[in-house]
Q: What sequence folds into this?
């Protein structure tokens, strides 16, 4: 009996990985140091100010006196437009408009383009105990640099057990129960020329709707092999065999072969796993004696890259059998 597949069925199965998510914070002074900002006036609690929001605000509307829905918890950047408007006002109005901003518990005000800051403004910042900073960077570049740093530093993170490698340019996270052979598979992939990012424990971060993984610093480049112990992959195979971090493009889960389980033989349905709220392609690869798991993972990585380019071999094959009229490229017909 012929089994008929509905090639239009794009059903998705999503597996969630629930790990403890760490929502981070960063102190203001760290951002100041990292970006080389000039301190014009520091608040008394400067070293203790904590940033929890990656967004930045340009308070142009607030400088006109409109304070409704003022996002005061963000860093405030005074760019060229805001500065020119402020300096177009008389001294008394400058003072009043800036006081309206500084009266809120804002983390700091940053002037771009090395703009000169009126002493009255500096005195006002000291009175309200608000940090004033300055940067030589242009406004757009300054905001971009701040946002990039805050998005990375404040991004939600967690850790998962597994192996993370870059295989043919695809970031592959290998998961599975203990003793299923994850480390041995990762080592074989390294010997095939691929790059190890992390063994056993992987720190993952959600940045800009992507998952980025790296090894915890204290176990970076190390690998544990049962019966052998700890090895240093970088020392044994060279710096070309390791990578500090990579984007995770797919997750492959290894599990012991189950004779009574019907494994996917076509790959038409899409399966996903959710990490930190982001869906990633997910494959389950059964392990048993005689199967070359490293080779299968290599092929899975290459196949994932093909899917990213819009080519799905399983759908092409079923179309060729059941709906050949749908194929644009007639050479893709079976036997063509």
A:
């Amino acid at each position: 009996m012929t089994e008929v597949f509905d090639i239009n069925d794009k059903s998705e199965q999503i597996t969630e990985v629930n790990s403890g998510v760490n929502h981070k914070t960063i102190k203001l002074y760290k951002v100041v140091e990292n970006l080389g900002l000039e301190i014009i006036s520091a608040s008394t609690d400067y070293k203790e100010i904590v940033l929890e929001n990656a967004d930045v605000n340009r308070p142009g509307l607030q400088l006109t006196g409109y304070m409704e829905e003022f996002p005061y918890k963000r860093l405030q950047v005074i760019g060229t437009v805001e500065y020119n408007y402020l300096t177009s006002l008389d001294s008394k109005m400058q003072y009043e408009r800036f006081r309206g901003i500084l009266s809120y518990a804002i983390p700091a005000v940053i002037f771009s383009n090395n703009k000169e800051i009126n002493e009255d403004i500096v005195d006002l910042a000291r009175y309200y105990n608000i940090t004033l900073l300055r940067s030589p960077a242009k406004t757009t570049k300054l905001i971009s640099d701040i946002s990039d740093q805050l998005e990375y530093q404040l991004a939600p993170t967690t850790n998962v057990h597994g192996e993370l490698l870059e295989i043919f340019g695809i970031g592959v996270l290998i998961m599975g129960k203990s003793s299923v052979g994850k480390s041995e598979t990762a080592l074989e992939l390294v010997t095939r020329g691929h790059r190890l990012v992390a063994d056993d424990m992987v720190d993952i971060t959600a940045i800009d709707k992507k998952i980025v993984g790296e090894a915890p610093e204290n176990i970076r480049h190390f690998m544990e092999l049962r019966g052998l112990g700890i090895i240093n992959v970088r020392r044994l195979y060279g710096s070309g065999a390791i990578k500090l971090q990579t984007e995770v493009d797919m997750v492959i889960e290894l599990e012991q072969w189950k004779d009574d389980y019907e494994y996917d033989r076509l790959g038409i349905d899409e399966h996903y796993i959710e990490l930190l709220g982001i869906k990633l392609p997910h494959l389950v690869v059964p392990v048993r004696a005689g199967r070359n798991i490293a080779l299968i993972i290599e092929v899975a990585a290459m196949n994932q890259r093909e899917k990213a380019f819009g080519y799905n071999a399983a759908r092409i094959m079923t179309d060729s059998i059941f709906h050949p009229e749908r194929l644009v490229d007639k050479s893709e017909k079976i036997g063509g």
